[in-house]
Specification:
NADH Oxidase; 169 residues; alpha+beta; globular; 7 helices
């Protein structure tokens, strides 16, 4: 058995589910951990990927876009349930990577960006803050990129990192 598995199963969080988003300082420490990912000597992590912390209004706009996509494939009831769930998440971070015409280079940048996400998630987890990562919550369409504050020509959305404790509805 993996030695970390019992820790993950036995872990309990000291925060009640209704608590608001984590303190800004915890998120800052998580983003610093992400920035520490090793990259090539010629690269600066800040040039390779971005962690965009969304405000409430931008998170609602993206949740609405995603719910509309769900409605198209699964119907209104499923979309409303997903929208309700997304609205209950206190913290949203969109992670993007720089687009590159060289497929090998873009794959490298993506891999390093995903390692950065893992580091940020582990840092938040170590402070008792739940996270959830999804690559299915991004849309390759201008409205998503606009709401996320991304430039579709130069950046590619890798996924969404939810953090904090969702409110019970």
């Amino acid at each position: 058995m993996d030695p970390i598995a019992p820790l993950l199963v036995a872990r309990s969080t000291p925060r009640p589910p209704s608590e608001a988003a984590p303190h800004e300082s915890a998120l800052r420490r998580a983003l610093e951990a992400a920035r520490g990912v090793e990259v090539g000597a010629q690269d600066d992590p800040l040039d390779l990927w971005s962690f965009i912390v969304l405000g409430a209004e931008d998170a609602r706009a993206i949740a609405w876009l995603l719910a509309r996509r769900i409605e198209d494939s699964a119907g209104l009831e499923a979309a409303m349930a997903a929208l309700d769930q997304m609205r209950s998440v206190p913290g949203w971070v969109i992670v993007s990577a720089r687009r590159d015409p060289d497929p090998e280079r873009e794959a490298y940048v993506t891999e390093r960006g995903l390692t950065a996400v893992q580091r940020a998630s582990l840092q938040l987890w170590s402070e008792g803050i739940r996270t959830s990562w999804s690559t299915e919550m991004t849309l390759e369409e201008p409205s998503f990129y606009e709401a996320a504050g991304l430039d579709i020509a130069t950046e590619r959305a890798l996924g969404v990192l939810w953090f904090g404790h969702a409110e019970k509805r």
